[in-house]
Design goal:
Layout: E1 10-17, E2 23-28, H1 36-49, E3 56-58, E4 63-68, E5 72-78, H2 85-107, H3 120-126, E6 136-140, H4 152-162, H5 171-177, H6 182-194, E7 198-202, E8 209-212, H7 217-227, H8 230-237, E9 239-243, H9 244-250, H10 255-267, E10 271-273
Antiparallel strand pairs: 1-2, 1-5, 3-4, 4-5, 6-7, 8-9, 8-10
Helix pairs in contact: 3-6, 4-6, 8-10
């Protein structure tokens, strides 16, 4: 029986130019006890200079999978796996694509590796940083870490995705709305999560029970000014034991309006799902 690919086992991916042995693109996934750059240097020396037809190097703590093309080799460091076939298939796809798109630039390489940063998306489409639950709702954070390959097409696609992230849509719902392959959406979501630009939350359902939280008087004053009495009625009804459905049934307001306000109150931190 064939084992499925587990992206949580991926530790490092590197593209290495065959002619000179330079690493033109590196994507670290997780901390390693050994410097991945040293691993890449060792592998390139073995493959390029010794001309040894090695495709797998097994260590106690990790495996190194290698695919060699005409201009570049692709290196994957992964936790020991019982079946390397699904990982190797994706390595081969990456190798073919990088040589199709960048083969001429690799042959005419003049030392500037910045031109290859956009190709990170192709790698992350095959090996995303994670595989998020499509039923979760991504919510944007004000600040995150610098994304080293947020350039050109990647930047354009991240901006497009961010335009669909409103704290209410699930990843699956975004996939249905956005004009982008599902695998790219997963890759881009994984980038935003990896670098701290989004959090995930569970989408509210009518069976959820909500409890009141302390939010700032300024927030409450603004909500009361915009939506009036229903704000306090909903807050007073949420005691951590009653379902949203029961609250909606008990209040004499339009159900869609209540649902909107409940989501708004959760979004600003005045309500939270009871644990």
């Amino acid at each position: 029986m064939r084992m499925p690919l587990d992206v949580s086992k991926v530790r490092y991916v590197s593209l290495i130019r065959l002619e000179g042995g330079e690493s033109i693109l590196n994507i670290p996934y997780a901390e390693m006890t050994v410097d991945p750059d040293l691993i890449a240097g060792f592998v390139s020396a073995v493959i390029i200079f010794a001309k040894t037809p090695i495709r797998t190097i097994r260590k106690a703590a990790y495996d190194i999978l290698i695919e060699v093309g005409q201009t570049v080799l692709v290196l994957l460091v992964v936790d020991p796996v019982a079946d390397e076939a699904p990982y190797r298939e994706r390595l081969i796809k990456i190798l073919k694509l990088v040589e199709e798109e960048h083969g001429d630039k690799i042959r005419a390489f003049e030392g500037d590796i910045r031109r290859f940063r956009e190709f990170a998306l192709a790698i992350l489409t095959e090996f995303p940083y994670g595989e998020p639950d499509l039923n979760l709702v991504p919510a944007r954070r004000k600040e995150g870490q610098h994304i080293p390959f947020r350039v050109g097409l990647i930047d354009t696609k991240l901006e497009k995705l961010e335009g669909f992230i409103n704290g209410k849509r699930t990843i699956g719902e975004i996939m249905n709305l956005i004009d982008m392959p599902d695998t790219e959406v997963v890759a881009l979501v994984s980038i935003l999560q990896k670098y701290g630009w989004i959090d995930f939350k569970k989408k509210l359902v009518e069976s959820d029970r909500l409890s009141r939280r302390d939010c700032t008087p300024q927030v409450l004053l603004k909500l009361r000014g915009e939506y009036g009495t229903p704000v306090d009625d909903i807050l007073n009804a949420c005691d951590g034991t009653r379902r949203i459905k029961d609250i909606m049934d008990s209040l004499q307001y339009d159900r869609n309006a209540i649902w909107f306000l409940v989501n708004k109150l959760v979004e600003v931190g005045c309500l939270a799902v009871a644990q």
